[in-house]
Amino acid sequence: MATIELRDVVKKFGDKYAVKPMNMTIQDGEFVVLLGPSGCGKTTTLRMISGLEAVSSGNIFLNGKDVTWAHPSARDIAYVFQFYALYPHLTVRDNIAFPLQAQAVKRDVIERRVKDVSNLLKIKHLLKRRPGGLSGGDQQRVALARALVRHPAAFLMDEPLGALDADFRETMRAEIKALHVAQKATTVYVTHDQIEAMAMGDRIVVMSNASVQQIGTPAEVYHSPTNLFVANFIGSPGMNLVKCHYQGGKLTLPGGSVYVPAEGWQKTLDHQLGDNQTVVLGFRPEAARVSGEPKISADVFLVEMNGSNVLLDLHLDDDNIVRIRTNRGVNYGLGDTINFDLDPQMVRFFNPSTEAALVME
Amino acid sequence: MSELTLQNITKKFGAITALDDVSFTVKDNEFFVLLGPTGAGKSTTLRVVCGLEKPDSGHVLLDGVICDDSTPADRDVAIVFQQYSLYPTMTVYDNMAFPLRAPGRRLPEAEIRQKIEAAAEKLRITHLLKRKTVQLSGGEMQRVSIGRAIVRRPRVFLMDEPLSNLDAKLREALRAELKHLQKVEGVTTLFVTHDQIEALTMADRIGVLNRGRLIQVGTPEDIYDRPANMYVAKLVGSPRINLVSAERVDGVFRLTEMGIELPLEDSDHLPDHFTLGIRPEDVHLNPEGKFSGEIGITEPLGVETVVHIHSQEGEIVSLASGLIQLNFGEPVRFDINRDHLHFFNSQGDRI
Amino acid sequence: MNTPKSKRPEVNYATRVDKVTFKSKLTRNLKAILTVIIAFIVLIPVFWMAATSLKSRADAVAAPPKVIFEPSMEGFIGLLTQRRQVTAAQGLEEIKQDPNLKWYDRVMLNRGQQIVGKSEYVGYLKNSAITAGISTILSVLFGLFSAYAFSRFKVAGKGDLLFFILSTRMLPPIVVTIPIFLLYRQLGLYDTTFGLIILYTVFNLSFSVWLMQGFIDEIPREYEEAALVDGYSRLQAFFKIVLPQTITGLAATTVFCLIFAWNEYAFAVMLTAQKARTAPPSIPSVLGTGGIEWAQIAAGAMGFLIPVAIVTFALRNYLLRGVTFGAVRR
Fold it and tell me: Range with the lowest mean pLDDT among A117-126, B213-222, C289-298?
């Protein structure tokens, strides 16, 4: 088991930064997710930890030992790829045994470990088959088994569920999480899917444009995003972000509705931005409560049935749409006007020029 | 402005039956979604409708007129594909003008310009008109494709997973835009997808297709609340519905694997053995709940948290609102909302 | 590499996975030098040929060979003209006084030769151009349409047909020249440009079908289908949508067909005599006329090489992509 530390790690391709200076410590047994859109540097970071990619500068420590320039095989780390990377000419059993054979482990030990790990992942019945004939989910289970069988110090996973269809993905997501809960192996997991990140991570590292935007628990990144990018990226749909005018303790929304923020926020806004300013109001779809009295009013643009609940797309004015979540059972028509209030606990503010979140004083 | 009907369509490719006696009607102005996994026959249906594929039997009717023998060009339908839908050698403008310059229409260039500009405005792609299509991002490409389809006001609008290749945020945005556009423009639309969320959020009605058979047709509420069989129940809803085997013993029901007993009123129509479907949102964590179990893993999704509860041999998934913190292995009590239970017989059909 | 050197002492460069980042200026320069050397070795014969074609008769046979020489167009002029020897007694000096003389007349007169007309080689070159040009156009055109049909439609016995088409390529040309020779004599196609065009077209067709099919298979059907639904006929969709996307493949196929038809020797030597004779069989015959005219032979080879080089150069951007994306993947 292991801790992983990145100290000022940088990766440049030519003059372009793939990863800007990055500092992070991953605790023993922690499940950390690197999350971001494609091209944000998350996979490069993972590859640097594994040693498949050299750092441009900075250092990587594994259990306190500097492994920046150690060969991947010397790092005692297992890597799970998106496209399984199973050897097609070997049986499932031989695929799983492969890393052990490389370490010249004794035969009976190999047998025992393969058996244990295939029990754990429920792939015992597949051991004699070849990977080619297996479903995507089973292939990924085999790939996980091959990673697990070595008892590595840490797991690195690069979008292991990316190639599965939605149905399997949900099942495998729970399985990997259960596996982690049982084994408590340090894991770094890369994904572009925020739902996956939220569901699996102890902590999430949100990345964009080669730099870290926020590191935090799922609850932190969901409820207290540090900037507009994180606010929009996390959540499905993301946080509603509305440019408002702030004056005399009141916010004027596009379309003319007036919202009075809590006193704490008024003080903060006065202090950090000043009066008569533009500010970005942020709230999650579930923060809105439809009410009879006219608080914030908007027109129904679209009703999206979402299974257990309904998402309403509302027009504040022609350019500003907000989405709110309501219970099923009420029928809204296109163009109806709806009034809603916001849960004061769930209101956030952002500085429109720096895009950073304001912190309530 | 028109109605599309499929009558008993069957289509075979060699020994494989791609479509097996499929019949449905897309009403005027309706947004109809065909939902099913890969290989269910969704795309074949679209291809039959536009005349790219001839059915072995059955008829396609447009506005009540059989059009089995008309060419794709004559049917006046428009299609948007998942990808490759823009002609790579042309500019965006020429792409959009392409259908209007077709031999059967051949509108004057001035009129074409006017139409394209209006459509571009609506889809917010005016700034792209002069670009080459290879310079566009995925989202922009699909916007243009939709524009190209809309600009000629076809009788029926066909879409073959047009959002599947886009990333999540873009998909969400375009979903809403597309749905709204469809309602405002009033185009009869047949939309094909494997994504149940897309189907639920966009459709006026959904047709569930599996292995070439149409299993159920209904509004999103029908499909979600009254799935015709276990297949549909599993297909729709995330996290997936709990399906647990149950037996009837002395007037109560025992959920076999979980050792839970569930009293039910008027249950005489149920067989001795059946499968019970419980949506995760109908399993409530409640300190005073009737049933007990152990917390398995929890998956905080943001607006809600998926909680796996272990009970004896079985597992049941609960959807709790908000982000809640629970520890693995902790004992927990819960209730099951008995108003929305689903019963399936041994064939998997709804009872 | 911003890290101070002292900070990573135990670096074992031999085990580094990612050597790419160590690409220094030195290695890049080394690469460039290596490329130049290889190019130089490869191009020596070509250079030699080019040099010889520009040498005078004396320089061409000088031993040791002259690297620095006074360029002369003798070789080229000799190749393209018929001349007669003129001695001083026959009034060489008087002929030289003629004000109507062109520059090439003077060059040859300095060698004591008077130009009396075009050589046969000019006609052969023309034949080559016509034969190769037309047969290439035809085989690419037929290949394009057949390949499209094979790619898009259900053709009965598609696999067998494709194999059959390819099998025409399996026999070396030399094996079939005799039967074809007999056939052509009966049909009156012997020594006709038309006959040669047919032969080259057919011979190239198999290659062209296979190559083009690879390219067309890679163009997603959705494009044409969208066009069909948009209100166009199959043929219109083909010309408006498919054709523009096959340019790369067309270019590659054209170059390969052209090179074959242009260079073809065996058929040409057997099936033509005079009227339809192409350039390749005629170059060696230059050897015959009074001593070995190295400059003329080199000029003939150069003149022969240049058209193909120009076409290949003009289409080079398509070629690389064409070769790597098309047939190779099949």
Answer: C289-298
